[in-house]
Specification:
alpha/beta; four-stranded mixed sheet; binds uridine-diphosphate-N-acetylglucosamine; binds phosphoenolpyruvate; 419 residues; single chain; elongated; cell wall biogenesis/degradation
Length: 419
């Protein structure tokens, strides 16, 4: 099994090119199932989750062309002849549940394995199911599968009691082919929702309000082929900015979307970093200083993203002062804490809040990745730890970061992967 070895102590400097967003490309690939002709997606990151989604769509009967070097995936949904998303694929990638809405809307039937929980929380799908029922779907959950049927879906009113990115995406996709108008209240406002809506619009969907908490969808009879470029990954961008800040360095992320990173940039400035954004470039400059501890509260967008929580905890571990990290989205997203403590961090957990007292230095040790962003936080900590940090179980990392060790090496980090 691959491991990553980081030798700490280098102040990072240079430019890093940001890839397309994992959390945008996955729903967009699922959305191609709604069309009746090929859809081409550009700026596709080379990630394990993308390959899993391609396998899932291929298993449904879609034609898949993947030019990895060009970052292009072409999906021909016209040959889809199955409605089954099997357990073996869904259990490795929760986003597989996003085929539910498209299959139902376009083919009138879907059978999707329940994704189950994962390291960060129980992650139920009740909101997805309720929202699709509001559009006329008949859904039963049995033998570990969500089994859904519908004639043509009809427009309806959906009001979420909790903001859910995935449930908003599922019902948004389903509503595009429904008969009549759907309103989605308390919708998630993440930039990835806006990107999904842009792709659907390119396919002929009629959507208003994506990016606000009320989305209105006027159903159409068919969606056609299209070409769409995936938005830049704001979480990858944020991770590299923290890498710059934690090492006291100067890092510029290119091909980025600084406008999607307001809360993260505010937190970096609170940590004492100079952050400048211009066009698709964003630069963090720490001028060799040690970061100041910051307090973080995770919230739905435009609040501070839970997917950046672990990385900022790593920053607080070596900051001046004491910071608190309040995780409000997932009930169990502190799996990185014990591993950071193995590196010498001083962290105390009380329920969903962690108090992190900054220490002068961390010391390298063998640690284990437990989920995607936890893995990223261990790399960040390793960049400033004395000596070598070896990170095991990095398959989590490959789900969501494209060539992270190559990109960090390009900034001067001493990091390598071993098999
Ligand atoms: C592929 C993808 O885009 N993943 C992102 C997506 O996950 P995902 O779409 O799974 O996250 P949600 O926004 O749905 O989850 C938010 C909260 O709602 C709860 N909930 C969700 C659905 C449901 O039916 N019932 C329910 O109770 C969840 O357990 C969680 O506590 O948004 C999360 C929150 O920004 C991010 O951390 C993930 O990186
Ligand atoms: C939690 C994440 O992803 P997923 O929803 O795919 O598990 C993430 O991207 O940090």
């Amino acid at each position: 099994m691959d491991k990553i070895i980081v030798e700490g102590g280098v102040r990072l400097a240079g430019e890093v090119r940001i890839s397309g967003a994992k959390n945008a490309v996955l729903p967009i690939l699922c959305a191609t199932l709604l069309a009746d002709a090929p859809v081409e997606i550009g700026n596709v990151p080379h990630l394990h989750d993308v390959r899993t989604t391609a396998r899932l769509l291929g298993g449904l009967g879609a034609g898949i062309g993947h030019d990895i070097a060009a970052g292009v995936v072409r999906v021909d949904p016209s040959t889809v002849d199955s409605h089954l998303a099997p357990y073996e694929l869904v259990r490795t990638m929760r986003a597989s549940v996003l085929v539910l809405g498209p299959l139902l809307a376009r083919h009138g039937a879907a059978e999707v394995s329940l994704p189950g929980g994962c390291a960060i929380g129980s992650r139920p799908v009740d909101l997805h199911i309720k929202a699709l029922e509001a559009l006329g779907a008949e859904i039963v959950v049995e033998h570990g599968f969500i089994k859904a049927r519908a004639g043509r879906l009809r427009g309806g009113q959906v009001a979420f009691e909790t903001v859910s990115v995935g449930a908003t995406e599922n019902v948004l996709m389903a509503a595009t082919l429904a008969d009549g108008t759907t309103t989605i209240d308390n919708a998630a406002r993440e930039p990835e929702i806006v990107d999904l809506a842009a792709c659907l619009a390119a396919m002929g969907a009629r959507i208003e309000g994506a990016g606000t908490s009320r989305i209105t969808v006027h159903g159409v009879d068919r969606l056609h082929g299209a070409r769409h470029e995936v938005i830049a990954d704001r979480i990858e961008t944020g991770t590299f900015l923290v890498a710059g800040a934690i090492t006291g360095g100067r890092v510029t992320a290119t091909h980025a979307r600084p406008d999607t990173l307001v809360a993260v940039i505010d937190a970096l400035r609170a940590a004492g970093a100079e952050v400048t954004a211009e066009g698709d470039r964003v630069t963090v400059d720490m001028h060799g200083r040690r970061p100041r501890a910051v307090d973080i509260v995770t919230e739905p967008h435009p609040g501070f993203p839970t997917d950046m929580q672990a990385q900022f905890m790593a920053l607080d571990c070596v900051a001046e002062g004491t910071g608190t990290i309040d995780e409000r989205i997932f009930e169990n997203r502190f799996m990185h804490v014990n591993e950071l403590m193995r590196l010498g961090a001083d962290i105390h957990i009380d329920g969903h809040r962690a108090t992190v007292r900054g220490v002068e230095r961390l010391s390298g040790a063998p640690v284990m990745a437990t989920d995607l962003r936890a893995s990223a936080s261990l790399i960040l900590a390793g960049l400033v730890a004395e000596g070598e940090t070896t990170i095991d179980r990095i398959y989590h990392l490959d789900r969501g970061y494209e060539h992270i060790e190559r990109k960090l090496s390009g900034l001067g980090a001493r990091i390598r992967r071993i098999s």
